[in-house]
Design a protein that fits this description.
The chain is mainly α and 201 residues long. It has a two-stranded antiparallel sheet with strand order 1-2. Helix 2 crosses helix 6. It starts with 11 loop residues before the first helix and ends with a helix.
Amino acid sequence: MGLGNQSKTLSDTQVKIMTDYLKTTRHPDRNILVFLFSIKCGLRAKEISNLTWKMVLDSNNKVGNELNLTNIASKGKSGGRSIPLNKQLKEHIVTYYNSIRDKLWTTKLSETYIITSERSSHVSPQVIVNDFQKWYKKVGYSGCSSHSGRRTFITNVSRKISLVGGSMKDVMSLAGHKNLQTTQLYIDHNQNAIIKVIDLI
């Protein structure tokens, strides 16, 4: 993907506006969860559509502290990974899980998808892509797509990982990329940082 064709990243203000908008939609809890999986976990549309409850529940069937994404749910041999759950995302998963858990016990949790629709127990990646396209259009975010949350996540993590003793390899691991070059292509530049760093050299 060329840099000129990449989806735009979102600012904190834009994330807040989108979240507030999704609260007004027909299925707010479900839709906000989709958005948070994108913006707080950096998941692809395919990954969001293939998430099962077993991937976020611990041995006691309670929401754990990380998402264990399998290769099957991602892009094959190298796509699977463990992603610590952001606090806001975990709280929303818990709320959503508690609201629907009584409907889940008749099936295996490992086979029960998190994101569903009124007509289906499993939505396709294209449904997720279409949802994002509709939402971004509603709030007027031109140039954004289902990949915007993923780019935003990777950009934000890359800027802060050194503050906790991490490196770009850790960012690569969270993104589920095979090589660092791919990860670097996702990171949006920061013009303010560029201006400030000049005064430090």
